[in-house]
């Protein structure tokens, strides 16, 4: 059952009900999708495309809302966004799993967000029977890399 006040679903609320619910739960009250244009490092030709987000107070959802992949030409083994908006930057560093594009293929990856507005990515690597993040999980310094169609991450602020 989705989060709701009583037995009314958020989609069925009028504006007054939504405002009361949002105020009490810390949810973004205007239900407006926001976006930003990332500043990338690790590319000779940076990816083109905005990243969309919802800020639900304690929870943030970021996603690729473009019609295709957000990729660029790699010239380093790193992939970093250096301008995550202040409003959705956590107070402490966090990590999570995601899917990334490297050398035209989709791979399991890790994202990390620091309190200094930096969203970084690494590739997951296999070591024996374990999948590890950030251990040798560097991108190819040629070809293309970026975020796939439908890319989405959710994290706690």
Characterization of this structure:
The protein has one helix spanning 15-25, and strands spanning 34-36, 40-41, 43-45, 51-55, 59-64, 70-74, 79-81, 94-102, 105-113, 119-127, 130-133, 144-147, 152-156. With 157 residues, it is mainly beta. It folds into 2 domains: 1-31, no CATH class; 33-156, Immunoglobulin-like, CATH 2.60.40. The strands form 2 sheets. Strands 2, 3, 6, 7, 8, 9, 10, 11 and 12 form a 9-stranded antiparallel sheet that branches.
Record keyword descriptors for this entry.
single chain; mainly beta; 157 residues; Immunoglobulin-like; nine-stranded antiparallel sheet; four-stranded antiparallel sheet
Give the SSE layout:
Blueprint: H1 15-25, E1 34-36, E2 40-41, E3 43-45, E4 51-55, E5 59-64, E6 70-74, E7 79-81, E8 94-102, E9 105-113, E10 119-127, E11 130-133, E12 144-147, E13 152-156
Antiparallel strand pairs: 1-4, 2-7, 3-6, 4-5, 5-13, 6-12, 7-10, 8-9, 8-12, 9-10, 10-11
Q: From N to C, what is the helix and strand string?
A: HEEEEEEEEEEEEE
Helix content: under 10%
Secondary-structure-derived class: mainly beta
The biggest sheet amounts to: 9 strands, antiparallel
CATH architecture of the largest domain: Sandwich
Radius of gyration: 18 Å
Q: What is the residue-averaged pLDDT?
A: 85
Alpha carbon gap, first and last residue: 23 Å
Highest-level CATH class of the largest domain: Mainly Beta
Report the β-strand fraction as a percent range: 35-45%
The parts where pLDDT drops under 50 for at least 5 residues are: none
Count of alpha/pi helices: 1
